[in-house]
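Practice record 12: protein with ERO.
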Amino acid sequence: TTLSTTFLGQTFASPLFNASGVRCFDKDELNSLLASASGSLVTKSCTREARTGNPEPRYVATPLGSINSMGLPNKGYGYYLDYAKAHDYSKKPLFMSVAGLSLDDNIAMVAAIRDAALPAIVELNLSCPNVPGKPQIAYDFDAMDRMLAAVSAEYDRPFGVKMPPYFDIAHFDLAAEVLNRYPAVAFITCINSVGNALVIDIEREEVVIKPKDGFGGLGGDYVLPTALANVNAFHRRCPEKRVIGCGGVRSGEHIFMHLLAGASLVQVGTALQEEGPGIFARLNAELAAILERKGYASIDEVRGRLKTL
Ligand SMILES: C=Cc1c(C(=O)O)[nH]c(=O)[nH]c1=O
């Protein structure tokens, strides 16, 4: 059994890597992911200028997962571009997550990434739920269309998009219709956190995070079925594109579910935040054991094999 796979012409020894935003803020964290058993790594979503983000507490783990309203803290795109320039791509592929606060910022950032002519893969974040006053682009289909038209015109290479969860079949149809207008969108990462949830501490009779009156994006066990549905919905609707699964993964079984639903690669968020980069060795072993037990020679054979009744 092998866990290796190819994606956008690059080889991944494992399909697993971090979800953007998790343990990927600076070069020390990125180098810890590089040294781990992950198949790749993705940088924290970046903006044109560095940001400190929202006041703390802004990330809290709960028994069933996590809630966060980080507010897009990052070192600015130049920092991550420098990291991408110094990265040794023979070790493992690298993704750069881009989350500009405006269309012009995204254009400027992807133009700089394009000019650097690196093997780095761009994941355009259309789904940050925690920047006050900035509604999620991917929940406004016209805005998403305009953003993809502009970015695909500027960035002359395949790239991917990080999508929020949708909860209505008509929305799967509308979002896929927009994405299918852009052949340059080679992959779709589903899902970002389930936005604007509220976790309550009953002893204190209080919310648990400071920003946005306690409203934040949900991750972990809470979101696995929603993540699987979004992976499968876009896998079915976008046959020319690949899907990266993200959401609710903390075991080999969860990864196998994402692969059955149609995922080519799988990102780990909350569980990585809580367990650390050592999680990748555990998850690789658990996934390999499942493939062995079921007689699959590679993860590619599992992709999209989910049966309906
Ligand atoms: C890029 C901002 C994001 C953030 C954040 O920085 O608050 N949190 C998420 O759960 N998803 C995001 O996409």
